[in-house]
Specification:
This protein has 346 residues and is α/β, with parallel strands linked by helices. It contains 17 helices and 13 strands. The strands form 3 sheets. The protein has a 6-stranded mixed sheet, sandwiched between helices. It has a 4-stranded antiparallel sheet with strand order 2-1-4-5, sandwiched between helices. Strand 11, helix 15 and strand 12 form a beta-alpha-beta unit. The longest helix is centred in the middle third of the chain and has 18 residues. The radius of gyration is 23 Å and the shape is globular. The N and C termini lie far apart (46 Å).
Length: 346
Amino acid sequence: MAQEPKVSLRGLYKIFGAKDKDVLQHVKAGMGKDELLAEHGHVLGLQDINVEMQAGEITVVMGLSGSGKSTLIRHLNRLIEPTAGEILVDGEDVMGLSETGLRGLRQEKMSMVFQKFALLPHRTVLQNAGMALAVRGQDKAACETEAMKWLARVGLQGFENHYPAQLSGGMQQRVGIARALTANTDIMLMDEAFSALDPLIRTDMQNLLLELQEELHKTIIFITHDLDEALKLADHLVILKDGAVIQQGEPQGILMNPSDPYIEDFVSDINRARVLRVQSVMEPLTGTKFAGDVGIRENLESLIARSGGDTTLHYRVMDGDVAVGELNMKDLVKALVPRLSSTQAD
């Protein structure tokens, strides 16, 4: 029996404007974003979103500016009210929650990490990290004990008595992550959490998130406009354009089989060797002579280096101690060539 999604969005629409429910019929009849604005003065934020987010996975929602990704994440805890549709968390319709129930959802089931850190400047690092527990009414000692644990986990032990202004941007974002972890919620919402950081610090934060996720198995909904970041972090990738889902699925599959010219253009400039993994290009195990073993999750760049560029070699693919397939270096080379998009063909 299939596992019930942790979060489900079903037929979700958001139209910004005073008569959003009245103009919804036009959107459902096929009216687009530009036409809706021109004829009715309303802005189409989300259009018929159907996404399932599984427990313990990182779902990345990505798209360019104006695609609706930040609007989407703010629906999960009802910071934004939908025009139509369902939002289910653990099978419960968020739209049916009372004010008390909604407060409980925000405090106990979901935590949020913001792009601009959202730390209180007059509170210490320790006080900021323990804020979620303090809001719930826990005593000071309990708040500080839990906050200290997660500050140490994100590499900020010894900085607990500093103030946010005394920290670098990367360190401030670590406080934001520690605050979310101290809240001990099942679901973490991360809205462009790393986009304000310098590239090297951003990479460090991505690696930290993956390291923590390996241990904690949170349900993370991560918003980004950066495809490299999305492909690195996502278990499930959702790509938006003009408020609609253009393609969603396992990121390696999207990269190998883009379903739309927009996606083809999006992925055309990606360093495929760095992003694609052995599991995406391997074939069923048939041979007996191999140049060596490779891990199923290794990226192709590491395999190219190991092979010295020799396209005649075959490798046995291992998932732990189990042989699960084989990889022909000629297939690897083919996978590095992106499919020609329709716009490029023209």
